[in-house]
Each structure stands twice: as C-alpha cells, then as structure tokens.
Specification:
The chain is an alpha/beta fold. α8 runs parallel beside α12. It is globular.
C-alpha cells in the first residue's frame, strides 16, 4: 500500500469533528444544592437536573465568585474576578465598573458564532451590544418575559417593614404553565432555537429565573409537597452561631429569618422554595427535550450553573450574601458529546462526578477552550478543561468567594473551608467530617498548619469597591407637603442617599427621627448636591427658603437619589 493510501486510511479512522460546536449555556437563579444528584434535600423533585448530571459531568465542589447575583454573573460573563475588578455588589453597574469588558457572547460572536439568549443571564439587563438576538428584544434591556403574580400582595408573608424585599413571598397560583409566562416563555423560545437549523454555530444562553423569589408557581408544583410533610433544612442547628467570631455572628442572623419564624412561615417558605425548584426543573426539561429531539443534539455542549446558593435558616440566615457553603456552593454540570469539541474529542463521560474545588470564574476560559476559540487575553478566568478529561485530577487548589465589603472571603479547598473576614477574624471547617459547617476549628491549636496553608490562598490585595454613580441610583419617592410627615424607623442608617437640587431655590434638608424630631443635614444651593445616610423607611423633610415645608422623601431602597424639583 502506498504512503498516500496509508495516510488517507489513518485520516479516515480519526473521529470527524464539526468545525465549531454549539453551546447551550444555562443559568439557574438562586439554586443551592437542593437537587437530587447533589443530595442537599431529600424532598427535592428534580428529574431533569438529575438526568443532565447523569449524562455528563457533575461538579460537587463548585463555588460562585460572589454570593450575590450581580457580582457572580459579572465575574462569569466578563472573566474578571471581583477582587481585581472591584465589582462586589448587587448595587453596582457593570458598565460603570467595566466599560470595556468583552462579555463571553461578544467573544464568541467575534469568532464566527451567532449569539442569542433569553431570561436572566446578567443582573436584570441584557447588555444589548453583546448579543445578536435576545428574547424579550435586547433593545428593551429587560431579559425576563412577563410573569404572572397574585392580584393581591403580599400573598403569604406579611411585610415586616420598609426593610423587607417585597418579593420574599410565596404561594401557589391557579394557572397553567403557559399562563404563568416567565420561565415557560423563556424555555419555549430557547426550545425553538434548538429545533432550527442555523447558518452559524450558536452560543445560546438560557436564564431560568426560578427559584429566585417570589416563590409563586402553578399549584401543581406545590402539590407534591404537603405542608405537613415539610422538613426543616438538614443544615439547620439551633446553636450554630455560638463558636463564631463577632463578624460571623453579625453576618448570620438577619431579620428575614426572625420575621419568617415570628409569622410561622418557615415551613411554608421551604415549601415554596421546593415548589419553585420543581418548576425550574420542569422548564429545564423542556429545554433538554428540545435539544435531544432536534438537529443539534450531537454537536452542542451543555453547561449549567447557578449564580449562588441560598440559606433557608442555616446560620439563622435567610437569603444569600454570606461566606458559608449554603451560599457559595452551587450546581455545576457540563456535557460534551463525543466528536464535538476539538479540544475534548472524546467528550465527557456520562455520570462522572468531580469533587475537587472549582470556581465559576473558570467558565469563560473553559467554554472558549472547549470550542477551540482563541483565549481571551487580560482576564482572570482559567480553564478547567483538564478536569473534564480526567475527573481525578485537581485543577484548582481552591475556589475563592468574595463578600461585598471588598476584603472578606471564603476559601473552598478539597475537604476544607476557610473564612477570613476583613478585620482578620477567621473560621475553619473540616467539610468531610462537618459538611454543614457546624464546628469552627479556627481556634484549635491542632488547626494551625491547615490555617497557615489556607491563608496562603488569600489574595495579597483587594480592589476597592467602585460605588454606583450618583446619577444611576434609584429615585426616592417624593410626597408634596400635606400638613404632616411620618416618623422614621428607630434604626441606625448606613445607606447612601444623594440629594440633587434641581429647583431654583436654596433648600434645607432635615433628617426625621423616631419622634419626628428634625436634624438638619444642611442647605443645598440650586444645581448642587448633598450626601446623607439612611435606613430603609427613612424620612427626609425638605424646607423652602422661608422655612415652610416643601415635602418629604421616603427611602425604601437601600441607596437612592432624591431629586428636589
């Protein structure tokens, strides 16, 4: 046989790879480990999360870069770590902090991909310039289709005060999935894209909003969870805060949890979260069914992640924002079909579990490398492709999660977790023996070596948090003076309030106290501004030059601008 024939035979025996694989990039909001394949709550009903995990690789020690939607998603989509970018908070604006960042879809579009998305991928905006197509239309900068809610709110949980996020509420709706809209509309639109033929390879992002609050979903998703059968979170322990440093004791308890307990809503809240996860699972199932019955099944990489976890009473906390595992550890799954990726031609092995630490910050670089695209220069994201070819191989020594204060963080290693607060206070947990972080070992003499090892993972410097521009703050409600004004809550205010005087008069701003006593913040000349500190519910009285009241502002949001007209 000639040399030419031998070469042709050798080439023919190699797997045929498509020029570029497609990417289905699925984000699920506020999902902790309460899915079957991760074992976080045995009551969870998640057959579709479980089937995706079983068909690819499940990462059981994956952690977000920040335990809040905005900084977590920004780190994923830009590849920039919070401690380098200064982007730590839900209240920041991505394009104010990172005006020149090339988001993942833009990078793919610049290398021959059609990029499209639906649902929440960024923090309540689309960044239209980064996509070819979006549903709803990218020009609206509203990524979430209209979603049904009860006609009367709150439905279940009474408002405890202006501090309360009004979407902390739950209950069943007598609607069909289609009537509900929201995630059903998203999964339907994504499914349509998966059944079409495309002229280019695609990067398709699907944002499933539930189990983000409010936990309103159709009745049928509540039915499998009778209230009498609801169990308290397996990670809850009544005296769990006793061995924490002062920073931990302050970070843990919040008034959401105490308010929920006071109103005897704990089990109903858990029921609502489980029902919302069940609903999200069904929407995921619609997307997976569309992929598997369409023309792109064998040439589409599927990546699923959640932006952060969620507390339901663990550490006396409700919501997110904490350094503990309930808040930082998330579902992460990757499925790569064989003969699809030029850098992983064998694909992922079905049913593989990877228990070494990984950070979601790695998604940008990993997805890019899986598709054979040039690496994006100047970002912090590091590929974990090696973990997909050898699930026994550690690729990251630890995963770092940064808190909002720009100095506190958690370090997630293989079997250990270290928390360092900005003031130097510490926590240490043996996760293998203590998965719920009940016993803080930081003060134990025998922990000295492990503490020293994990301290070395802490960055030497942290970028300063870059505050939102005053002009971008939400606007406080103004009420023209009607002869009286309300009192303010008896709380210490710490949130920024910016007063802008757009009127032709010099006015004076007064902070209203618990008994309606007035404390002058100062005068503001026309065209000038003044800064103050508020608590939610704070009342600010505005007086005219002659001393007569003009009206008052009520601060409901955490940071606001008050426009005096």
């Amino acid at each position: 046989m000639s040399l030419k024939s031998l070469l042709l035979l050798a080439l023919a025996s190699q797997p045929l790879l498509a020029a570029k694989p497609n990417v289905l990039f699925i984000a699920v909001d506020d999902l902790n480990d309460w899915i079957g394949c991760m074992g976080g709550n045995e009551q969870a009903i998640t057959p579709n999360f479980d089937r995706l995990a079983a068909s690819g690789q499940l990462f059981t020690n994956a952690h977000c870069a920040a335990p809040a939607c905005n900084p977590s998603r920004t780190a994923i989509m830009t590849g920039h770590s919070p401690h380098r970018s200064g982007f730590y908070s839900n209240r920041q604006k991505m394009r104010e902090v990172l005006p020149d960042a090339e988001l993942m879809p833009a990078h793919f579009a610049n290398h021959g991909y059609h990029t499209a998305g639906s649902g929440k991928i960024l923090h309540y905006f689309t960044d239209a310039q980064s996509w070819d197509q979006y549903f709803p239309a990218k020009s609206t900068e509203n990524p979430i289709p209209e979603t049904a809610e009860p006609s009367k709110r709150p439905l279940t949980l009474p408002l405890g005060g202006p501090w309360q996020y009004t979407d902390t509420d739950w209950g069943p709706l007598t609607l069909t999935d289609q009537e509900f809209g929201g995630d059903h509309a998203v999964s339907g639109w994504i499914g349509e894209q998966l059944t079409k033929k495309h002229a280019k390879p695609f990067f398709l992002a699907c944002g499933i909003y539930r189990p983000h609050e409010p936990w309103f979903v159709p009745q049928k998703y509540f039915d499998p969870f009778p209230l009498a059968d609801i169990q308290l979170p397996p990670g809850y322990k009544a005296d769990d805060l006793d061995d924490l440093p002062a920073s931990g004791k302050k970070r843990g308890p919040n008034r959401y949890f105490s308010h929920i307990q006071k109103n005897k809503q704990w089990k109903k809240g858990i029921q609502g979260y489980l029902a919302s996860i069940h609903f999200a699972d069904a929407m995921l199932g619609r997307v997976l069914d569309a992929l598997e019955s369409g023309p792109h099944k064998d040439n589409t990489i599927v990546i699923l992640w959640s932006d952060h976890g969620w507390h339901l009473g663990e550490k006396e906390h409700w919501q997110k924002y904490t350094p503990w595992r309930a808040s930082t550890r998330i579902p992460f799954m990757v499925r790569v079909p064989a003969n699809c990726s030029p850098t992983l031609p064998a694909g992922t092995t079905a049913g593989t579990i990877y228990d070494h630490p990984v950070s979601l910050l790695s998604l940008y670089a990993t997805t890019t490398e899986l598709c054979g695209l040039p690496a994006k220069a100047g970002i912090d994201s590091k590929s974990i492709l090696a973990s997909l070819s050898d699930p026994t191989k550690p690729v990251q020594k630890s995963a770092l999660t940064f808190l909002e204060d720009g100095g506190s963080l958690s370090v997630s290693a293989k079997d250990w977790r270290y928390i360092r607060y900005k003031n130097g206070e510490e926590e240490l947990y043996d996760i293998k023996a203590d998965p719920y972080e009940w016993t803080n070992l930081a003060s134990k003499p025998e922990s000295a070596a492990k503490l020293a090892e994990l301290r070395r993972e802490v960055p030497a410097t942290f970028a300063t948090l870059i505050p939102i521009k005053s002009e971008s703050l939400p606007e406080a409600k103004f009420t023209a003076f009607t002869g009286d004004y309300p009192a303010s809550p008896d709380e210490v205010g710490a949130y920024r309030t910016e007063f802008f005087n757009h009127s032709p008069d010099t006015v004076e701003v007064f902070k209203v106290g618990l008994k309606k006593e007035l404390t002058s913040l100062g005068e503001i000349a026309p065209g000038k501004r003044l800064s103050g500190k508020s608590t939610p519910g704070q009342i600010w009285l505005i007086q005219n030059p002659d001393g007569t009241p003009r009206g008052y502002f009520e601060v409901v949001d955490r940071q606001v601008k008050a426009l005096i007209k």
